[in-house]
Amino acid sequence: MTPTVTTSITEDVFQRALTGEVFIMRCTDLSADVAQVVRWRIARIFTKITSIPSSAEDITAKTASVRPDVIEKVNRRLRISFSRWPISAKYFATLISDTCAKSKLIQRFRYPILIPPSVDPVEWIEFSPPHKDSWYGYPKETVNLWLACSSAKEAGLQIFLNSIDTVMRFKTGLGKNAGVYGTLEEPKVCDQFPPMKCTPETGEVLIFCTDALHSSLPNTGLQTRIAIDYRVIDRRVASKRSQWNNGVGRFFLPVTTVLRCPPILESILLSDNPVSRRITQFY
Ligand SMILES: [Fe+2]
Known about the structure:
Layout: E1 4-6, H1 11-18, E2 23-25, H2 29-50, H3 68-84, H4 88-94, H5 98-101, E3 104-107, E4 113-115, E5 142-148, E6 157-160, E7 170-171, H6 175-181, E8 183-184, E9 195-198, E10 205-209, E11 214-216, E12 225-234, H7 235-240, H8 242-246, H9 248-251, E13 252-254, H10 255-260, H11 263-270, H12 274-280
Parallel strand pairs: 1-2
Antiparallel strand pairs: 2-10, 3-12, 3-13, 4-12, 5-10, 5-12, 6-9, 6-11, 7-8
Helix pairs in contact: 2-3
Fe (ii) ion binds near residues 128 and 131.
């Protein structure tokens, strides 16, 4: 089983994703450029923290990326760097077709997720066990867009098919990663859903429902895996949910607004700071 190939997020693709279908967008020049810029910026952060010269092609175990304390520092810097100079929300917005874009909101701020080589996957920060993003508040009618910024060697994620709409008990607060993602109370539950293993190449984008159970595949490569994900939701769904209605300006912006943003306004609107949160309440 493999993801369905698509070249754009149309209303049809969006709705089918909500029913559990997984899509992949093949690499384009633009997505390759965005992935490369993300890698360059992370390489610079690595270099600053470790004083070990690094390049976008060489974010390896040797650059100390496997040390959890280093990864924590890198993640802190990443958050700051990507909130000051967001580059990718607009890119993700361009993936959505014009007609579909009119009715959609897009998450306005994310920073990349790093998964170091998995010597002991359980211990690695950001290694994510099977979970649903809907567990941490996103309406299940949300669609995830996941851009691979590493090659398939570093693996990707597996999406458990037919897991949408199935209520599963989960717990949080156990271990470094469980606190972020939550873990299944009964891990065996995922055995009943066939896993689709997705290992996209740099610049490819996976599209899947927020309510689909998914997990990282262990990174058995030598390099740190880098991915960045955004979410898209229909305006009508967002406006029905009080927490998302109140938080629309905070978490999501109309795709059309993001596409229209000139660079300076974009950096104000999309960055994650108190001022921008106040401003974006009006959008
Ligand atoms: Fe997730």
